[in-house]
Write a structure and sequence with these properties.
The protein has helices spanning 2-17, 21-44, 59-78, 98-110, 113-133, 135-167, 170-185, 187-201, 207-213, 224-229, 233-263, 280-285, 294-308, 310-332, 340-346, 349-357, 364-368, 373-378, 382-412, 418-442, 460-478, 480-531; strands at 82-83, 455-456. It has 535 residues and is mainly α.
């Protein structure tokens, strides 16, 4: 039965590539990236086993393994997503026992680029144990590597499946979305804090923390190689037992959420309804001061989607966390001294945040899916479509950008920085928004019609990552003229930063609307076909 699920996964994967050369290219690029970073990480994990290894070498497998497991758990929630090619709901009508279905889904999850990259990266632990201790330690380390991979995959599926069930319940949906977005966006801050803390404290002082971490499920399977090389076989057995028990508990949690995923139920109690009165148009617009036109209706619809749709709301929360973190670290971290105006621009904090803010609409049509067919049939103008979506998105992003700039100026202790920050921030946001418009028209991808809000189609994780990075980089590059104005213009440049930055942003958005809107008018059928999920 496990082989049947494996063949089914590979067949669905092959069928999804038919007639989609772009998807094949992205899959190959993702595979090459996994190969490159896997080999690089494998060499990193060899550090504790090289001759004359430093005393802090034991820190590498403990902290490296913990970061790897946490990345598997958190990153799929709001960045890569989780590949559910074999969605549990498709097996609802088949007489499959839950253990059989669980094993089949686990086998299918292991057949992917992330699992391949993880196995390749952690293979350095087994190779190092073999070089340093011989065949028996190598076998023990290899068992730890395999169990670590199973832990990563089962933990990722259990967390996404469990929280997907919670997100379908109205009482816990908002709290869960906030929690997941904050946790996932905190991976970068935690990594920075660990790196800076290690540099200040010293790697040797992290050894006691690594010893404690090695007895947790996060790092236990990755440190058994060191124990085996040093002859601590009791510790090897204990760490492997901790890993196995954790995998079984996570598998039980995953299994408990399969039934609701197959039935599409929430388990969230009764649904409350509210009686509303008044004309339908008045109820739809509410208190929003928008024109009662198709354009106004699209703006109001998008505004509601950005606060009611789980995927969109999570992206707003994630941007808020990252937007607070990046400027604080780059402007207030070590070495941030000298001319504060030049430092705030040279550090690139406002440009990074502004360009990042535009990424929220990089796959704006993918959120709609087949619902976009209504706009195609009606014949909505591309310029009107993109303008309505940009206005609705900016309705929430612009106040966040203003608050972030004020926060950083207050932390700097100089409110005179606000004109420079506003100018560079909104210039980068305008260019990022224009680039994201083109990305949403040219490089949209389908999101699966799935009860799991974190689910993606096979190969889409790579597309999502490259799409976001390309639009982000292009937005930052196009904002360079404003940065040069401030850096080279001195006090005059600081004064002109705000008006020139706002005018530059407006021009970038206007140009993006015209060019991307005209392209959208000619690509509506192709875009609809691209964002339509294939079963």
């Amino acid at each position: 039965m496990a082989l049947t699920f494996a063949r089914l996964k590979l067949r669905v994967l092959r069928n999804g590539f038919r007639g989609r050369p772009g998807k094949i290219v992205l899959f190959v690029v993702g595979l090459l990236a996994a190969l490159f970073y896997g080999i690089l990480t494998a060499l990193f994990f060899l550090i504790p086993y090289v001759p004359n290894a430093p005393d802090w070498g034991a820190v590498v497998p403990a902290f490296g393994g913990a970061v790897l497991v946490l990345g598997w758990i958190l990153m799929p929630l709001v960045w890569f997503g989780v590949d559910e090619t074999l969605e549990p709901g498709r097996f609802a009508l088949l007489p499959l026992p839950r253990p059989v279905l669980l094993r089949g889904l686990l086998i299918a999850a292991l057949l992917g680029v992330p699992a391949f990259g993880t196995l390749l990266a952690t293979s350095g632990l087994a190779i190092g144990a073999g070089v340093g201790g011989g065949p028996l330690p190598a076998v023990a380390a290899a068992v730890g590597v395999v169990l670590g991979l199973l832990l990563c995959v089962v933990a990722s599926r259990a967390v996404t499946s469990g929280f997907a069930r919670a997100l379908r319940a109205r009482r816990t949906r908002d709290m869960a979305a906030v929690l997941l977005a904050v946790l996932a966006a905190s991976i970068g801050p935690l990594q920075f804090l660990l790196t800076s803390g290690a540099q200040q404290v010293g790697m040797q002082r992290l050894a006691p923390i690594a010893d404690v971490l090695g007895w947790t499920p996060l790092a236990a399977p990755y440190v058994v190689g060191l124990d085996a090389v040093q002859g601590r076989w009791a510790a090897v057995a204990a760490r492997l037992a901790i890993t196995v028990v954790t995998i079984l508990l996570l598998a039980w949690w995953w299994s408990s959420s399969l039934e609701s995923a197959m039935a599409g139920t929430s388990g969230g109690g009764e649904v409350r309804t509210r009686t509303v009165t008044g004309a339908p148009v008045a109820r739809f617009f509410g208190r929003a001061r928008l024109p009662r036109t198709p354009y106004g209706a699209m703006v109001q619809r998008e505004r509601r989607y950005w606060v009611r749709d789980v995927r969109r709301r999570a992206s707003l929360i994630t941007f808020t966390v990252i937007g607070v973190f990046l400027p604080v670290v780059m402007n207030l971290g070590p070495g941030a001294a000298g001319n504060v105006v030049a430092q705030s621009v040279n550090g690139g904090s406002m440009v990074l945040v502004g360009a990042l803010a535009g990424l929220g609409i990089a796959n704006q049509f993918g959120y709609d899916g087949t619902a976009y067919a209504t706009h195609v049939v009606v014949g909505v103008s591309g310029r009107v479509e993109l303008r309505a979506r940009a206005v609705a998105y900016s309705w929430y992003i612009v106040p966040l950008l203003l608050a972030l700039a004020v926060l950083n100026a207050v932390l700097r202790g100089d409110l005179l920085l606000l004109p420079v920050m506003f100018g560079t921030l909104f210039a980068a946001y305008g260019t990022g928004l224009a680039c994201a418009m083109h990305a949403s028209v040219w490089a949209a991808y389908a999101l699966p019609e799935n009860q799991n809000p974190f689910a993606i189609n096979t190969g889409t994780g790579v597309a999502k990552s490259f799409l976001a990075m390309a639009a982000w980089f292009a937005g930052m590059v196009l904002a360079v003229p404003i940065v040069l104005l401030v850096v080279l213009g001195g006090s005059v440049g600081a004064v002109l930063a705000l008006p020139v930055g706002l005018a530059y942003a407006a021009g970038a958005v206007w140009l993006g609307l015209i060019t991307a809107g005209d392209i959208l008018d000619h690509r509506q059928p192709e875009l609809l076909a691209t964002i339509t999920p294939r079963t």
